[in-house]
Recover the amino acids of this structure.
């Protein structure tokens, strides 16, 4: 009876052991995504976290994907090209003229003061027209210069390469913590099922 009890106890422990092994395996796999941050060698085996090890490769891949499929400098150029500046230019010129003319003619003859409004209005029309014409004339050239000088992919690469890997780990864990726990639990469930199948096989076929 004692021997039979020991055998049964051993069989019943297989699903529990399988669940622990499955959970521990996936837990270690998740941790190896981020750690260790430095390279360690053990018995000729190099141990290094996946993200720290492939950080440069990943940053270049992300930057290329962003610029190719999501956002590039041409998109910014198109936004600038579609922007209208007439209203802002008119308001700015009107404000500057009012302030400058008020200061210039302060304390002058009353007649000059009355004329200042008409003069300012006329000057405003002339200046606004000239500035809008200049903006339209040089806008394409300025946009092209902006496009040629801004390297979005390089900016993304530099920013990501200089980003602290620990902060990156913290952000990723916050975003996908539930999914990572699900992976760990999945390992436990699969390990338990494998252990249960071993019990069934042992009982039926032995």
């Amino acid at each position: 009876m004692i021997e039979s009890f020991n055998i049964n106890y051993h069989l019943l422990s297989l699903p529990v052991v399988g669940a622990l092994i499955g959970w521990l395996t996936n837990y270690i796999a998740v941790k190896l995504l981020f750690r260790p941050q430095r390279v360690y060698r053990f018995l000729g085996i190099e141990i290094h976290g996946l993200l720290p090890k492939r950080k440069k490769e990943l940053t270049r891949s992300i930057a290329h994907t962003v610029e190719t499929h999501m956002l590039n400098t041409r998109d910014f150029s198109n936004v600038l090209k579609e922007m209208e500046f007439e209203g802002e230019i008119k308001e700015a010129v009107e404000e500057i003229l009012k302030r400058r003319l008020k200061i210039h003619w302060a304390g002058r003859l009353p007649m000059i003061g009355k004329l200042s409004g008409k003069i300012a209005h006329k000057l405003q029309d002339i200046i606004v027209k000239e500035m809008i014409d200049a903006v339209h004339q040089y806008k394409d050239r300025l946009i092209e210069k902006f496009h040629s000088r801004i390297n979005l992919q390089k900016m993304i690469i530099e920013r990501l390469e200089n980003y602290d890997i620990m902060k990156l780990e913290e952000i990723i864990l916050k975003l996908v913590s539930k999914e990572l726990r699900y992976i760990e639990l999945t390992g436990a469930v699969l390990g338990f099922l494998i252990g249960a199948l071993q019990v069934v096989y042992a009982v039926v076929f032995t």
